[in-house]
Amino acid sequence: MNDVPVSKQFDDIYFSKKDGLAETAYIFLDGNNLPQAWQDKSQFTIFETGFGTGLNFLSAWKLFEQNAKEGQTLDFISVEKYPLKPKEILDALSHWSDEFGGRLAQLVEHYPIRAFGFHRIKISEKITLTLIFDDVDAALKNINTLIDCWFLDGFTPSKNPEMWSDTLFKEMARLSPDGASYATFTSASFVQRALEQNGFSVEKQKGFNYKRDMIKGVKTTSTVSPVAAVEKQQPKAVAIIGGGLAGASCAYVLKQYGFKPTIYEASNSLAHGASGNKVGLYNPRFSKLRDDLSDFFAPAYAQLIRTAQAAKGDIGFHPCGAIHLMNDAGKEERYRSMVEHWDWSADHAQIIDKKTASEIAGIPLDHDALYLPDSGSVSPYKLCHYYAADVEVKLNTFVHDITTLEEDAVILACGGQVTDFDCLKWLPIETVRGQISVLEETKATKNLKCNIHYGGYMSAAKDGLHSIGSTFEKWVDHKKVLDRNHDDNLNKLRENISHFADVDFKIESGRAGFRCATNDRFPVVGKVPLHKNTYVTVAFGSHGVVGSIAAAHHLADLLRGVTVSLPVNTQYALSPQRFVDRAKKKGRDII
User: What percent of the chain is modeled with pLDDT above 70?
Assistant: First the structure.
């Protein structure tokens, strides 16, 4: 093979020119004694430094499916600071497409947008891929799960010294139980010394093809990993209280991991509350810098896109793109800083001037903007029903006491009603009424090609209708649709898009519902303190479409004991335990 891809950043090849597939088998599979190493483990975890083209993952995936026993699962975690485009991966590996038997096409189909963060991809009930687009040191510090096997596959140390850092080897020692293995193509002396100093044996052997040496080894008993081993749970029955987006997404995701979910919904239909809108716009939550909030919502946005693209059924998916107007100084500062610091490819987020924004939108706009070409809308109502398909749903079933349920675990996903349960009476959440207005398409709006956000929003037309909204009223406690709220929505639209200033819109309908939020404006997702096998997922505010699916994967991780779909810092920022700890710092006990 003479067309091996070369890294622009490191001027190094991604795999051997002689035979990259054979190289992977020799160094990483045979070097780590696979498949023998996982024969007696119900769950096996591999960590790879440098995803590159995905060749190592595809090889491990195929080997596992060919050799794993019934009930065994593989978690493959890989870090990549400079992710390739899907087409670049396809071009690099197309030579082996028959060898991988459809796996290459499946990987490319589910490959994330090139945005920072932890991207969870559920390949099958057996195989889970966590693809982390970030610096390897930063990623490792935010992981707290045991690793059985290491593929050390960064570019040559002389060309990529930052990856082969002291932090890498120290984190390997922290995360490795005794007997954990590693293998790498390099035999650089400083790599050997670092591995030995951090408790690993070093065995040198003949390298692949022209290379003289490679090394492999195992974690010895001279050091002990501080990461506690978690008992891997077998798939069990899980009760989900609530049939909105939070609950339905849990049912959808838990089935993929082999659990048996049952939804308990107090009303006579799924998506009875705020999740019942016909159109819901999806975007990440924006922040000036990367923080715990962005580390949750940015990958969640990418995950929702992949979920929608793969949906087998009508969920109202309309990937039309979104323009976020910089119509005040605060938004301009936040969006420009976000693009600078979030480390997204320009394919997925960019600042555009008002002329370009107008061309993309199809109507005249008055402001420069942030443009997200992958954004769009779905139908939350249809999405809930899609998520809950093939799952047992018990409607008109009000659960007063979760201890009466027969399932092995319980997830509370019922919005503001979670505080009706004794275990979460102390949770500081509030509900805020919001009303949307549905407008008939007009001559002035028919050319609108994407969603526009301006403090409110207007969706591109779907079936001749636009959704605009949404009001924000903490003081209103009913869901009756109000004319004054329609006026509020229309006034905000006209104030921010002068093209619509004199348009006489006809309101087709409206809908009101209640958002659920916390006093720190961060969702609540995790284990309920002091209550065994009880979990919660609520308070996504206006980002339930995006946040709920990522939250569901995190809860699946908690249930199975492999918590790597989110960074450790973000896991804590989401957890209900944060409120308990804050109260204790102030000298109060809230539970």
Answer: 94
Question: Among residues 250, 130, 210, which one has the least CA distance to residue 538?
Answer: 250
Report the top-level CATH class of 20-218.
Answer: alpha beta
CA torsion angle 197 200 204 206 (round to 10): -130
Segment 84-88 shows an average pLDDT of 94
| For residue 484, pLDDT beyond 80 | yes
Q: Would you kindly state where each structural domain of the chain is located, as residue ranges? A: 20-218, 233-318+376-428+521-591, 322-357+367-373, 429-518
3-state helix/strand/coil string of 90-106: HHHHHHHHHHHCCHHHH
pLDDT tens for residues 518-551?
989 999 999 999 999 999 999 999 999 999 999 9
Sort 547 into a burial class: Cβ within 10 Å, 0-12 / 13-18 / 19+. Answer: buried
Residues 552-579 as b/e (b if ≥16 CB within 10 A, e otherwise) read: bbbbbbbbbebbbbbbeebbebbbbbbb
Contact predicate 327/457, CB 8 Å: no
The pLDDT of residue 374 is above 70: yes
Which amino acid makes up residue 44?
A: F
Topology (CATH) of 233-318+376-428+521-591 = FAD/NAD(P)-binding domain (3.50.50)
Question: Could you give the C-alpha distances from 396 to 147, 243, 393, in angstroms and in order?
Answer: 44, 11, 10
Q: What is the CATH number of domain 429-518?
A: 3.30.9.10
SS3 of residue 451 by DSSP: strand
Residues in a beta bridge with 524: 538
pLDDT bracket for residue 11 (50, 70, 90): very low
Contact (CB, 8 A) for 319 and 372: no
8 A C-beta contact, residue 64 and residue 45? no
Name the nearest CA neighbour of 485 among 466, 507, 517.
507
Which string of DSSP letters, residue by residue, matches 82-145? SPPPHHHHHHHHGGGHHHHTTHHHHHHHHPPPS-SEEEEEE-SSSEEEEEEES-HHHHHHT--S
Phi, psi (deg, nearest 5) at residue 262? -130, 130
Rounded to the nearest integer, the mean pLDDT of the chain is 93
CB 428 within 8 A of CB 519: yes
Q: What is the largest CA-CA distance in the chain?
A: 78
End-to-end Cα distance, the chain: 64
CA distance 117 to 81: 10
